[in-house]
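debug: dumping io for the single-chain case to check the tokenizer round-trip. Nothing else runs in this session.
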Amino acid sequence: MSHPIPRAAAVTAAITLLTSLAAAPAQAQADPTSQRQRDFTAAAKEFNVPENILLGVSYLESRWDTNAGTPSTSAGYGPMHLTDLREAGVAGTHHDEGSEDPRGDDARPAVHPQAGPPAPPPALQTVDEAAHLLRTDAQTLRTDAKQNIRGGAALLAKYNTDNNWYNAVARYSGSTDKAAAQTFADEVFDTIRTGTTRTTDDGQQVTLAPTPGIEVPQHADTTPKNVECPRKVTCESVPAPYQELPNDDYGNHDLADRPDSQKIDHIVIHDTEGYWANVLDLVQDPTYVSWHYSIRSADGLIAQHVPTKDVGWHAGNWYVNAKSIGIEHEGFAAKGTWYTEAMYRTSAKLVGYLARKYGIPLDRAHIIGHDNVPGTTPATIPGMHWDPGPYWDWSRYFDLMGAPLGGFGLPGSSLVTIDPDFAKNQPAFTGCDKSGSGTPCTLRGSEAVVLHSAPSESSPLLVDIGLRPKGTPSTMDVADIGSRVATGQRYAVAEVRGDWTAVWYLGQKGWFHNPRDARVAKPAFGWVVTPKPGLATVPVYGRAYPEPEAYPAGVTVQAITPLPYTLAAGQKYSSGGTVGSEYYWATTFDPANHVVVKGKLKYVQIQFGHRIAFVKADDVRIVPAF
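debug: decoded output
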């Protein structure tokens, strides 16, 4: 039973309350940089999802980023990666663009297979399911981070049909492959176990506190015995056909016996420019081209197509093909899309496994993008591909491999490693919707640093005489790599003026802004090459082929053709190591007729422009960088 408060007492109480409110300090404003954390907390509570589960799933999809509203490589939007293929659209495969011959062997006719338009996968529409649950629209879920998080939480709650959050997380991956879905869930729960914290691409502070005791089910290893794959990831076999074709032709790769026949020196990172199902169809076509592995965006599933002992047709340069492993990643370079954390993680495990197996150094001289592969002759340079593009996060990738980039030299070193802050480094590229269109791309994080011809943002970009024989400057088109350095690449310093640094690049000084409080290049240890005394210039090559005398009878001598660049006296370029001269003669279906030609010539791999190149060891001195 309540009792009324006497009037005098009520007045006194009111005065006391007003006095205390007046005396109390103003309530502290919520920190705007932790709003995303509060959004996760609120959504977890609203839909009765454990907050660490919600945070863990989001981290494996987007690392809590918004990516400026652009879709992922599997059409996912926002921190929870809600997929909307209608909005993301479809692109064709990059193997159909330009004039690159993926095989890149002058001894055989060029191959330019056409894939046809890819069919979009029907499963990439979780945004509709989430919109139905929240009674909102797809656009809101794509563009509003808070609502996107609520949509992801609603889906997780719906998927938790047996009160088993591990199964709900596996289903959230969208994978139709049980083992791949479990791998995704295992990565989520590993992240929950260890915890993590970071600042997102839009400046939000988010923390996932560690939960050391969390457990996951044990699974049987389902990897086929013929698949070369690391443990704790899901791999399948989708073989590329080695098949005889009409007109004395065959496809779509070459049998070999690596590393006994030839050392494997490089791993080449590609993106598919198409969706998963279409890519698998292409690699199983004997009239198409091939690569060794593909990795799916949504869950990181790995498919092996060609044994690593054999040679895939993927890089557009036969010398590189014969000495590399090619890995395609479901994604798009030109559309400004982003690669999922799930795909980065399994790819990093695969590359680490292959690097250990074949003794490949974990650096950017040997783990290269397709965009770092040189043209074979002056005529092939303009048609070379440029994937995985400037939005591939090389720094994050190498962190996952336990081989972080940058920061290992002494101040004032004459060699630097390009290492910008990925999220803050946002070059104003154009042409993401359609290469060459001039339409500005959405500003977002990038691994690329643009070079200028003078220490000024208003100065023209550099000239790449191979891409533009008429000598016109490079552009900011997303596909134009003529005046661009990439994270992890090393360059010799040519000059420093205040906050500007110049490096030697394609025979020129390339300038970039490198202020003390926001370094985009870090001092490095290493070796550089420079012409021997008395040589004004030395030729630069796109492949390290043997001298003519090395070829046996019946094997056509391959021309040692210089590229249209020169390395001049006084210039220095970072060394990627000395290599022997080799050519793999493989022009017939019967591998018994294949021959590895090894010469006495030695070459040095250098970081010459955006792409690697080779110079003859007899032409240069190799000296330590100071």
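debug: round-trip ok. The chain has a mean pLDDT of 91.
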